[in-house]
């Protein structure tokens, strides 16, 4: 028997769920802000610092190309780090909450006991 909507609201208001949200937000907000700032810096440099972005580093590779490629690298690093963070910190908390919901949904109801 699935858990009731009231049970999900109870879990949503629980301390464990609050801890899960806090853990996620502690990772997601700073990482997102840092990435957006990094991307905005790249866009602004591309638009307004053309001479700087055109500096040749090796052969035909210039600063703009290197920073553009680093955008991809940083995206993959963030994805890898989030997967690692989630496996270590988020998933155990989510599993605890899931087990609690699952146990309450499979527990015998007291209504049928006379």
Would you kindly provide a written description of the structure presented here, covering whatever features stand out?
InterPro entries: DUF485. Keywords: Membrane, Transmembrane, Transmembrane helix. The chain crosses the membrane at residues 27-49, 61-83. Pfam families: DUF485. The protein is mostly helical. The protein starts with a helix and ends in an 8-residue tail after the last helix. It has helices spanning 5-12, 15-48, 50-53, 63-106, and strands spanning 56-58, 61-62. It has one domain. Strand 1 and strand 2 (61-62) form a beta hairpin.
SSE layout and pairing:
Blueprint: H1 5-12, H2 15-48, H3 50-53, E1 56-58, E2 61-62, H4 63-106
Antiparallel strand pairs: 1-2
What is this entry, summarized?
Keywords: Membrane, Transmembrane, Transmembrane helix. InterPro entries: DUF485. By secondary structure, this protein is mainly alpha-helical.
């Amino acid at each position: 028997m699935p858990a009731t909507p009231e049970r999900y609201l109870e879990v949503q208001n629980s301390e464990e769920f609050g801890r899960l949200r806090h853990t996620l937000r502690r990772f997601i907000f700073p990482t997102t802000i840092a990435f957006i700032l990094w991307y905005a810096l790249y866009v602004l440099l591309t638009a307004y610092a053309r001479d700087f972005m055109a500096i040749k580093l090796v052969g035909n590779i210039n600063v703009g190309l290197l920073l553009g490629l680093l955008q991809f690298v940083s995206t993959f690093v963030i994805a890898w780090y989030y997967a690692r963070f989630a496996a270590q910190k988020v998933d155990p908390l989510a599993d605890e909450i899931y087990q609690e919901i699952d146990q309450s949904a499979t527990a015998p109801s007291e209504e049928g006991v006379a």
